[in-house]
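so my prof wants the structure for this chain in the tokens format not the other one, which i didnt know existed until like an hour ago. anyway here's the sequence
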Amino acid sequence: MDKTAKELLQKVADIKEVPKGAHSIREDGGSYSLYSTETVKIKAREDKMGIDIHVLPGSKGETVHIPVIITASGLKERVVNTFLIGEGADVNIVAGCGIHNCGTGDSQHDGLHTFHLEKNAKLKYTEKHYGEGDGGKRFLNPKTELVLEKGSQAILEMVQIEGVDDTTRETVVELEDDASLLIQESMLTDSQQRAKSIVDIILKGENADAQIISRSVAKGNSRQEFELKMTGRNHCRGHIQCDSIIMDSAQVSSVPEIRAEHEGASLIHEAAIGRIASDQLIKLMTLGLNTEQAEKVVIESFLNEEV
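here's what i got, hopefully its the right format
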């Protein structure tokens, strides 16, 4: 792995080298390194590109890295990954994709990720997307599907750092009794970039609980679309919050939808789009920052704000 690939690896997975724990690192359309542990089994699929991951029941404290790096201009791939998180397991999975494109062709990575969390399992899933280079365009299209069995919990951190020219992100989740879900989405677009996020949550089980927190910044002439839907089919709770900062000539569309199909469903949605407040910039500029520096501080604080 050369210097460029290593820098991408750090951007999307916060690692500088191959980790010691369970991992699958993919580079330019092939497997760069794959390793299983006693409690996390990873194997390459034989029917198509991708991997199957099985976290054994009761496993605790494992962190699994599965980043994808693309530096070959013109490379286009689609991978299919499945994840089975065993009963009572507690695992942290760090994914993400980085594309460096300085050639003439467009580069693209599409991924289908299917999760099944067994009873009382816990998952934290972090996915970062990043693009760079002055060549062809960079496309990233992830689709993530989850089934949460009784009492299971999932936290999804979905982050688009910068540099992605075009993306359609889809997330579909079904929750059974006492299951809980938190989705934290952050997105930054600039120049002519386009981004669309589609989230569909179905609260099937009694006392299921879900929260979607989406924050975005649209700059330049970029376009963003958000379609966030939540359906309650039992005694359950759900909350959608979608906030965006719009700058320059960008466009943002936000369509939160809540649907109650049971009298015991309690659902809330909120959406707001606005520019950076001038008093925030003035306050920072009185501390010695110029306009550009003050905007950067406000944007980073907004996108990284904890729930």
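also thought this was worth mentioning. The first helix runs from residue 3 to 13.
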